[in-house]
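Replying to the earlier thread about multi-chain prediction with a worked example.

Input:
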Amino acid sequence: MSALAVNTSDFLLELRSEEIPARMQATARADLEKLFRKELDAAGLKPGAITVWSTPRRLALIARDLPLATEAVSEEVKGPRTSAPAQALEGFLRKTGLTADQLTERDGVWFAINEKPGRATADVLAAAIPAIIRAFPWPKSQRWGAASLSPESLRWVRPLSGIVALLGGEVIACEIGGIVSGRLTRGHRFHSSGDIVIDGVEDYAAKLLEAHVIVDHVTREGIVRDQARAAAAAAGLVLVDDEGLVIENAGLTEWPVPLLGRFDEAFLEVPPEVIQLTARVNQKYFICRDAAGKLANAFVCTANVVAKDGGVAIIDGNRKVLAARLSDARFFWEQDKKKALEVHAEKLGRITFHEKLGTVADKVERVARLARWLVEEGIVGASPLPTGEGALVTPLPSGEGLGEGVPPSPATATPETPNTPTQPSPDRGRALLADQAELAARLCKADLVTEMVGEFPELQGLMGGYYARAEGLPDAVADAIRDHYKPVGQGDDVPTAPVTVAVALADKLDTIAGFFGRDMAPTGSKDPFALRRAALGVLRTIQENGLRVPLDRALREAGWWLTETLEGRTNGAVDPLDFFADRLKVQQKEAGVRHDLIDAVFALGGEDDLVRLLARVHALQAFVTTEDGKNLLAGYKRAANILKKEEFAPAAADYLLEPAEAALTAALAQAGPQAEAAVAVEDFTAAMAALAGLRAPIDAFFEDVTVNDADANKRAYRLGLLAEFRAAVHKVADFSRIEG
Amino acid sequence: MADHTATASAAPSAPSFQDMILRLHAYWSAQGCLILQPYDMRVGAGTFHTATTLRSLGPESWNAAYVQPSRRPTDGRYGENPNRLQHYYQYQVIMKPSPPDFQNLYLNSLFAIGIDPLVHDIRFVEDDWESPTLGAWGLGWEVWCDGMEVSQFTYFQQMGGFDCKPVAGELTYGLERLAMYIQGVDNVYDLRFNDAGTSYGDVFLENERQMSKWNFEVADTDTLFEGFRRAEAECKAAIAADVPIAAYEQAIEASHLFNLLQARGVISVQERASYMGRVRDLARGSCEAYMAKFQDQWAQKFPGWTA
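Result:
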């Protein structure tokens, strides 16, 4: 920058249009700033602070302290020496387009000096504004009006109706698509009429405010948030905060006025989630809770007008619309309850799950079988969970069978109390759990064909749970139906109740086995069937419940129907077990676990129990960062390198062992079996400790002993010792996979 | 153009159903629209009228407004649901090219039928429109009045698979819903049809009962299937004979027969997509034939214009 003080001014740009979809406004603000900065950058202009605002009908940008001109640039081009032949000078003049008298001579050399004067910022902006508008990356844009006779006509998110462009109060004159920039804008659609004259940055927001437009979206969001809460509080209620709704309502209004209305209390018999969804998704209303935390018969809508009657008509109108929607919802709720889930489920045969994987009824059949298998194999509900929490078996109240339609009373359906007379025997407990898992699995998709889920697909599972409870199925079954899609995303809860765990796992394993078996594994970024999410759900369910799942066997079991025999688990080209290993690495990487260590354990083969695998990886990670671990790894790599190069036949020593040799021999005799024994009882820390005992002997061995001795017997014995050392290490992990 | 606020003080009282239509006719007539009559065929929406579909093709300006009886057989409720009808009325406005003050023209029309924008909350909420059947899409809004959708507002971008050059603006008012709102009535059958004591129910309740029964239970499905095949064949023959308007009529006939078959529940999920594809082909084929018939003539009148 020049040392001279630069004159600067503030710049205002307003792009006024018909209503911009609320969901696009945040991105549009960011895009406007990005494009504006890009244009300034290209011209070498550095603005001060930039502010971008949006309303449904305008995008506004304010750039502070814009220099009024770009800097003058002086470019010097070196020419021939003054002593050079005439042709050289002629060539230079041709190239520069100058005459000889315009050149400057310095130290016997000709120079062409090209003075580029600074450009007025006003000119830069006059070109930049149309460029920004043309380049604007709206997700969807349209043509409009008479100009659209040409397919090349201007596109904008909705018809663009005006441009205000003022630099230091002066209009930046430009034109695009027949719209000429100026200083005139419009206020609120109904509270203001005629043009508003803007002088510049300083009076813009204030004049709009007078015209009932709060141009700063953050201010509007604050009004929606605070006044919605206040409206609820004034009614003795608590607003259910919903930041998405705050932003959406601020994006739908230029003058937000939150208003509280009431709906008929009778609708509260409909599940609260249904009411909330109806209010939120269809009407963009907030909902409220009463002091006890129960859903209240109230809603808060956000009007865009200060109504002459104080909002009475608006509230009444909104109440009627909500009532119509809630009566639809109640109708669905009542219709759906008229049939048992079992009856609804009969229609699942008409819905295709995937053309290669049969109908949803087929899937349900498979999931039911697999859920039962998971229980009967003792995989789910087998042993106490590591935390000591979570029901292993949710016993039915004694005497109650499944499907007999006797609703359990709340008192008898509570979780188990150990060692009470009603506690079933382990076998009976397992049988009940298996029955419940199978039943829940058979019913878990039935809500897909209900009216309610047809209307609100996002209520799948949840409605099934409600309907199950309404028909008197045990809570454990209803919960499993409700929660079997879990965990849906990274932040979602993982099921812990055994029946739910069995169904949730079976559903996801069936999906993964099926798609892999029919060669529809995810590729690259394409995962149309969300198999990665399903696999992660399986991993988390296993991990967080400490389940011992032989995944390979479970996948074979899930894929039994894909081929004639169990052995040929999959027809697919990709082994789903590898897919799980990859998912595990991705997941564990986020948790700070080294992928090479996971590889080191996977490489041993035969490990498909993720809990055991991770315990070993965790112990390994703790070990390889210790001094012993690092040195042992170095010793291992050295041994492995030697073994890679040398061929030998192991031989017993026919000579007196050197001390370091003898020490290693003795250490191996101890450490090898110790590590093996520790692994067998899954005490991986002990296994690492056993390996740590090899560190000093292997270091000493390499220090004192020559492996490649001229004596063939010594060489063979020593190489054999190294091979033994490598084998001992491999009892814990394949150290060759470990980096560093 | 008048500002709403300029006339906001003169809020008219709630008109009857028929008066509301008359006021809309008077209003849009004053805006230069032709006031047309309904298309005399069974259609699912006002958009199907040739005054919208076919006339939105090509470069010539076109401004029209009309009421279109609309049939949605699967929405029938035997006259027992206060909001759902298998036969109802849409008020349709089409203006090509879309006028610069189309939103204000629309808002003033609401004022003309008794909706004061300083008493009610009127909002334009994103709702893009797409009709795969017509090979058409557009951007626009559903217009909310106190949270209720009262109109669909669309800038057509494509019709029959062709870019709209120029773009037409389309308004669709759900007349019963709007009237229920203006009259403060919770049941469609309670609407005042006129100001002399006749209700909407007096006029249409029995029709809803009988037609719901016919749509769902009685209509002979073999006849419907046969009708569909005949309409399809007739449409193709008409395209071949270069009478695209006739072809288009057969396409909408096929479309309605398909809707009836749906109501009878005799089209499986798999077949459904196939039938929709057949209807789409007919509608698009008709639009293409219409375009082919007129494009040279249009290009002559509008130099540089191409389909």
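Chain A is about 45% helix and 10% strand.

Feel free to reuse this layout for your own posts.
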